[in-house]
Amino acid sequence: MESFQITMAEDFRIQGRGGFYDATGTIRDVIQNHLFQVIANFTMEPSAHRDSESIRDEKMKVLKAIAPLEANNVIRGQFRGCTSEVGVAPASKTGTFAALRLDINFLRWQGVPFFVRAGKSFPVTCKEILVRFRRASDAYSDLATTPNHLEKLNNLLDVNSPPLLKSYLCQGAYICGAPAWNSHFNTADLFAMLPISHT
User: Across residues 92-121, what is the average pLDDT?
Assistant: First the structure.
């Protein structure tokens, strides 16, 4: 894997929770629990047993392996008008937006940046995971002379949760003597074609 991005954007503001949110902020509200849970589910090693404690232990290994954050790997912001919300202090600096870059000290994830973003008062509500896979080899490094071809050879997995609830697998391919091309596969289309068993 080359990189992992998880985004949680909300098109609404604090919605009457000014007192709570001013004391909490985006990082403690959704990143440290909800989004870290998703990262742990994605990056944990297979558990030897299927019981909840064994799975929890594997998740804890991931969370403990996250390197301490450095100041240049954190951006915090606040939507315009936040300090006029009921319950928010006029001079509040509490972040309603945060973007982090994480590194996980596992051999499997060595050199893979994990980007986490969350915030309120965005144009859309969206929850998305975007995984960019590494190219397996440099067998097609000669394509570097052709603009954008190497970019197209990177495969992507794009997973959206409600309200979109769609997943896409974008595969780059190269046919000898032809330019690189991308194929998009929507998992929602696959599930629509599968027979449903009513038991």
Answer: 96
Q: What is the pLDDT of residues 48-82, one digit of tens each?
A: 999 999 999 999 999 999 999 999 999 999 999 99
pTM as predicted: 0.78
**Which residues neighbour 76 within 8 Å (Cβ) at sequence distance 6 or greater?**
25, 26, 27, 95, 97, 98
Residue 198 appears among annotated catalytic residues: no
CB of 170 closer than 8 Å to CB of 183: yes
168 bridge partner residues: 158, 186
Q: Which of 34, 49, 149, 184 is catalytic?
A: 34
Q: Which DSSP symbol is given to 162? A: T
**Cα distances (angstroms) measured from residue 196 to each of 1, 107, 116, 187, 193:** 33, 40, 36, 15, 9
